[in-house]
C-alpha cells in the first residue's frame, strides 16, 4: 500500500505559511459539486459580496481540487455567504451543513469554557493547576508547582511542539493514563518564555473543567456553547454524532482514510462542526461574546483570550511583524489590523477560523483533503478582495507553492529510499529480534515472528501503529503503518557489547509526531 509521504505538519504549515511563501501564478478549471456559479471573472470587484466570495471559493476549489470544502463568511454581524464544493465522501456532495472534524479549532471552545468559569467566579486564570488536579506532574517540580490554568492554554509550559502526542494519537490510553505519563516528558524550553504547541495541556484544561463543574468536557461544550448558539448539528466528538448525521469523511491523496476516534485529549481537537454552525460561533465572538439575546462570553474574558501570552515569531521588535498566542487563539498583526485565528489539522481534515475584529469580519474554511495551503489561499484571497486587490492572484500564487511542496515531498521520499544499502542481511536470526520492548514514556511494543516475517505492534496504539517488518538493510527494518498519514518507518535495532539486542529506535520523519524521542528497550526474560 502506498503510504502518505512526509508532510509539512498540518499545524506547522498553517503557522508558518503566511510568513514564508514566495510568488507564483497558476490556474485550473473544475466544476463545483455542491454549487453552480457563473464563470469566474479574472478581476473581482472591490468589496465582499456574496458573488465575489463564492467566486473566490470556486477558484480555490478549481486550483487545489480537494475532495470537499466549505466556506462561511460573516461581515458586520451578518452571514454574507456559506457555500460548499466537492464531496463529503464518494457520491455524497458536501454542503454548508456537512460536519468536519475541526481539529485544533476546538481549542478556542475549551478556552471559552474556562472563561465562563472565570466569569462565574469558579476559576481564575492564574489558579495553580495542582490545586484542581493534585496528581498533575511535569518533569520539573518547580514548573509543576507554578503551572497555571492560563499556562495550560497558551503553549508556554516548557514542552516542545507536539511533545507527547503519540500518547493520544490512535491510542487507547484514557485521559488519566496520559496524565500520569506527562511527568516523563523532558522539559526542553523555558517555562513561560518559549512557545511549544501543546495538545496535552488542553487535555489537562479539560480535566480542570471537569473537576470544577462535575460534568464532562463533552457535556460542557455542547450545553454551554453549542446549544445556546444554535449550533444544532455540532457535536463534541465523532462518537456523539447521531445516526444519519451529514458527516464528512477524511481523505488523503483522494482516498478515504480511517477517521481518528479520540479516546484521550478531546478538549484539544475532537469537535465536529459545519461552516453553517461555526458562522454562529464567529458572529458571537465578533459581537463581544453575544449572539442575539444569548451571551456565551463576557467581553472582559474574551479580551483576555485574545491578549497574547507568549511570542511565536522571534526577531527584532516590530509591531508590523508580530505573532503570538493568547488563550486558545493565535494573535497576529496583518494588513494593519489585529487578526485572531486558529487552524486545525487531523489526518484528512484541515480547518481555519479567522477573525478581524476591527473590520467585523470572520470566516471559516473546512476541507476533508488534508490541504492547509487551500485554506490559507482562501484567507489571502479574502484579504486581497477586502483591500480592492485581485483575490485570484493569491489563489494562483499559493497553488504554485502547493505544487512545490508536493514536489519536495516526493524528493524526500526518493532521498530516503536512495539511502538503502543493498545486499546486506540482519546480524542475527529473525527469532532473536522477537520480544517485548518498552519506552519509558510511551509504553510497550511487541515484535513477533510469523513464519519468515517479523511483525511489530505498538501496543497502546495497536489500532494504527502496527505492521510487517520488511528487511531494509543491516539491522534496520521498514514498516508501512496502515495509517496513510504517516511516511514509512524504519526500525533500527541496537546491540550491546556482546552482540545482544538491547532495543530499537524509530525513524518516521513527520513533524506532527516525534517518533525520534522514543527509545524502546528490550525486556529481558527473567532467569
Your description of this structure?
Among the domains are: 99-335, DD-peptidase/beta-lactamase superfamily (Beta-lactamase), CATH 3.40.710; 430-522, Lipocalin, CATH 2.40.128.50. It has helices at residues 10-16, 50-64, 107-119, 141-146, 149-153, 175-181, 200-213, 217-226, 266-269, 275-286, 299-305, 372-386, 391-418; strands at residues 68-75, 78-89, 92-93, 100-101, 251-252, 255-256, 272-273, 290-291, 294-295, 310-311, 323-325, 330-334, 337-346, 349-356, 361-367, 435-439, 443-450, 453-458, 466-473, 476-479, 489-495, 501-507, 520-522. The protein is an alpha+beta fold. The strands form five sheets. A nine-stranded antiparallel sheet has the order 3-2-1-15-14-13-12-11-10, sandwiched between helices. Strands 16-17-18-19-20-21-22-23 form an eight-stranded antiparallel barrel. The chain has a two-stranded antiparallel sheet with strand order 4-7. Residues 1-46 have low confidence and may be disordered. It contains 13 helices and 23 strands. α2 runs antiparallel to α12 and α3 crosses α8 (217-226). It starts with 9 loop residues before the first helix and ends in a 5-residue tail after the last strand. β8 (290-291) and β9 form a beta hairpin.
Helices and strands in order, then pairings?
Blueprint: H1 10-16, H2 50-64, E1 68-75, E2 78-89, E3 92-93, E4 100-101, H3 107-119, H4 141-146, H5 149-153, H6 175-181, H7 200-213, H8 217-226, E5 251-252, E6 255-256, H9 266-269, E7 272-273, H10 275-286, E8 290-291, E9 294-295, H11 299-305, E10 310-311, E11 323-325, E12 330-334, E13 337-346, E14 349-356, E15 361-367, H12 372-386, H13 391-418, E16 435-439, E17 443-450, E18 453-458, E19 466-473, E20 476-479, E21 489-495, E22 501-507, E23 520-522
Antiparallel strand pairs: 1-2, 1-15, 2-3, 4-7, 5-6, 8-9, 10-11, 11-12, 12-13, 13-14, 14-15, 16-17, 16-23, 17-18, 18-19, 19-20, 20-21, 21-22, 22-23
Helix pairs in contact: 2-12, 2-13, 3-7, 3-8, 12-13
Amino acid at each position: 500500500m502506498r503510504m502518505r509521504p512526509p508532510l509539512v505538519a498540518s499545524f506547522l504549515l498553517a503557522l508558518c505559511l503566511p510568513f514564508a511563501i514566495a510568488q507564483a501564478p497558476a490556474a485550473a478549471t473544475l466544476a463545483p459539486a455542491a454549487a453552480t456559479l457563473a464563470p469566474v471573472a479574472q478581476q473581482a470587484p472591490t468589496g465582499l459580496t456574496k458573488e465575489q466570495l463564492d467566486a473566490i471559493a470556486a477558484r480555490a476549489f478549481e486550483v487545489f481540487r480537494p475532495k470537499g470544502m466549505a466556506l462561511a463568511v460573516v461581515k458586520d454581524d451578518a452571514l454574507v455567504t456559506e457555500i460548499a464544493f466537492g464531496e463529503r465522501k464518494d457520491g455524497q456532495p458536501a454542503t454548508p451543513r456537512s460536519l468536519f472534524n475541526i481539529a485544533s479549532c476546538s481549542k478556542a471552545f475549551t478556552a471559552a469554557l474556562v472563561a465562563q468559569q472565570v466569569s462565574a467566579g469558579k476559576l481564575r486564570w492564574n489558579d495553580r493547576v495542582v490545586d484542581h488536579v493534585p496528581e498533575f506532574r511535569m518533569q520539573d517540580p518547580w514548573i509543576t508547582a507554578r503551572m497555571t490554568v492560563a499556562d495550560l492554554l497558551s503553549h508556554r509550559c516548557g514542552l516542545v511542539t507536539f511533545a507527547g502526542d503519540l500518547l493520544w494519537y490512535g491510542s487507547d490510553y484514557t485521559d488519566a493514563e496520559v496524565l500520569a505519563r506527562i511527568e516523563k516528558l523532558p522539559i526542553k524550553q523555558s517555562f513561560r518564555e518559549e512557545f511549544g504547541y501543546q495538545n496535552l495541556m488542553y487535555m489537562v484544561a479539560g480535566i480542570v473543567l471537569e473537576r470544577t463543574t462535575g460534568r464532562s468536557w463533552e457535556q460542557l461544550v455542547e450545553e454551554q456553547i453549542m446549544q445556546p448558539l444554535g449550533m444544532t448539528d455540532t457535536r463534541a466528538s465523532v462518537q456523539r454524532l447521531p445516526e444519519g448525521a451529514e458527516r464528512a469523511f477524511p481523505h488523503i491523496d483522494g482516498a478515504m482514510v480511517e477517521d481518528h476516534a479520540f479516546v484521550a485529549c478531546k478538549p484539544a481537537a475532537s469537535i465536529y462542526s459545519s461552516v453553517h454552525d461555526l458562522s454562529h460561533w464567529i458572529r458571537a465572538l465578533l459581537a463581544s461574546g453575544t449572539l442575539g439575546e444569548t451571551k456565551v462570553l463576557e467581553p472582559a474574558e474574551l479580551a483576555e483570550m485574545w491578549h497574547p501570552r507568549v511570542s511565536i515569531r522571534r526577531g527584532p521588535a516590530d509591531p508590523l511583524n508580530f505573532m503570538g498566542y493568547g488563550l486558545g487563539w493565535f494573535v497576529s498583526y496583518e494588513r494593519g489590523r489585529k487578526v485572531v485565528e486558529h487552524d486545525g489539522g487531523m489526518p484528512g481534515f484541515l480547518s481555519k477560523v479567522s477573525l478581524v475584529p476591527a473590520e467585523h469580519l470572520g470566516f471559516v474554511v473546512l476541507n476533508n483533503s488534508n490541504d492547509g495551503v487551500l485554506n490559507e489561499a482562501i484567507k489571502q484571497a479574502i484579504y486581497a478582495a477586502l483591500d480592492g486587490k485581485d483575490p485570484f492572484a493569491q489563489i494562483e500564487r499559493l497553488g504554485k507553492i502547493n505544487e512545490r511542496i508536493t514536489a519536495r515531498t516526493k524528493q524526500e521520499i526518493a532521498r530516503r529510499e536512495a539511502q538503502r544499502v543493498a545486499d546486506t542481511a540482519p546480524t542475527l536470526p529473525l527469532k532473536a529480534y522477537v520480544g517485548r520492548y518498552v519506552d519509558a514514556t510511551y509504553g510497550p511494543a511487541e515484535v513477533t515472528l510469523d513464519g519468515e516475517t517479523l511483525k511489530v505492534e505498538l501496543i497502546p496504539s495497536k489500532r494504527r501503529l502496527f505492521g510487517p517488518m520488511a528487511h531494509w538493510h543491516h539491522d534496520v527494518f521498514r514498516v508501512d503503518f496502515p495509517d496513510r498519514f504517516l511516511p514509512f518507518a524504519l526500525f533500527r535495532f541496537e546491540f550491546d557489547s556482546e552482540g545482544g539486542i538491547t532495543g530499537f529506535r524509530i525513524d518516521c520523519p513527520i513533524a506532527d509526531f516525534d517518533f525520534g524521542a522514543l527509545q524502546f528497550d528490550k525486556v529481558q526474560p527473567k532467569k
